């Protein structure tokens, strides 16, 4: 019996880190998803741009003056390339196309949909929230390179405290309410506003820790932050 769709927002730097491809991780990630699909689970995996996106944006800005819309388009095309790469890893297990419009429900017999960025002003985190709305999901799993949300930037403040549970109101006090292309935040501020409106739960997970990710996807206690 097919279960409800689970929405994953996967940071591009998890799939393509600065240090180069982690083949062992990619194989384990693929196996984890396939094993869960075999148990009747279904996934929409939205792939971000990550460090690759920011490298393109920084290089372009160094050469010419670009608008935020220009920078967003660079990011969108980067997510599309990253998502196509992931779709090829799963081959015929996944839906035949990479999906970019999160507001239009796709008819598919497959239990895996790979998605990319949509349009300027809309991060892949927001896309994931919109997919949750379109497919009736109540939770988004955010896989990034951090394990927790902190009350302030831990790279700048040695006394930063990790948070395991936080409300949307308190979370927005930390990340603000403004979107900038290439922004690196635990969860996009604009996506947060919509997630709060939809009463979604977002789980922040260290994406490379697949034991933790698997626990979260199975509704077990996990190490990370829950925003609700």
CATH topology: Carbamate kinase
Strand content: 15-25%
- How many domains? 1
Largest sheet: 7 strands, mixed
Count of helical regions: 8
Element-by-element helix/strand order: EHHEHHEHEEEEHHEHE
CATH level 4 superfamily: Acetylglutamate kinase-like
CATH class descriptor name: Alpha Beta
Assign a percent range to the helix content. 40-55%
**What is the first-to-last residue Cα distance?**
29 Å
Q: If classified by CATH, what would the architecture be? A: 3-Layer(aba) Sandwich
Using the alpha-carbon principal axes, give the shape. globular
Low-confidence stretches: none
Structural class: alpha/beta
Strand neighbour order, sheet with most strands: 3-2-1-4-8-9-7
Could you give the count of β-strands?
9
- Average predicted confidence as pLDDT: 93
The value of Rg in angstroms is 17 Å
Task: Provide an overview of this structure.
Helices cover 42% and strands 16% of the residues. The protein is α/β, with parallel strands linked by helices and 228 residues long. The strands form 2 sheets. The chain has a 7-stranded mixed β-sheet, sandwiched between helices. It has a two-stranded antiparallel ribbon with strand order 5-6. Helix 3 (50-63) packs antiparallel against helix 4 (68-90), helix 5 runs parallel beside helix 7 and helix 6 (168-175) runs antiparallel to helix 7 (189-198). It is globular, with a radius of gyration of 17 Å.
């Amino acid at each position: 019996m097919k279960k409800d769709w689970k929405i994953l927002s996967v940071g591009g730097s998890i799939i393509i880190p600065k240090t180069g491809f982690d083949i062992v991780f990619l194989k384990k990630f693929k196996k984890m998803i396939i094993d869960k699909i075999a148990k009747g689970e279904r996934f929409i995996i939205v792939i971000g741009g990550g460090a690759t996106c920011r490298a393109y944006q920084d290089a372009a800005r160094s050469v010419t003056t670009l608008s935020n819309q220009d920078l967003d388009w660079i990011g969108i095309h980067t997510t599309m390339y990253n998502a196509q790469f992931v779709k090829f890893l799963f081959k015929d297990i996944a839906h035949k196309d990479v999906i970019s419009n999160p507001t239009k429900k796709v008819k598919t017999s497959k239990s895996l949909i790979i998605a990319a960025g949509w349009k300027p002003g809309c991060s892949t985190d927001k896309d994931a929230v919109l997919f949750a709305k379109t497919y009736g999901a109540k939770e988004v799993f955010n896989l990034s390179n951090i394990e927790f949300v902190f009350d302030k930037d831990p790279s700048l403040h040695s006394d930063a405290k990790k948070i395991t549970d936080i409300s949307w109101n308190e979370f927005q006090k930390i990340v603000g309410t403004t979107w900038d292309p290439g922004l690196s935040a635990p969860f996009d501020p604009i996506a947060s506003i919509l997630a709060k409106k939809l009463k979604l739960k977002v789980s922040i997970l260290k994406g490379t820790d697949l034991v933790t990710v698997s626990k979260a996807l199975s509704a077990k206690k996990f190490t990370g932050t829950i925003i609700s």
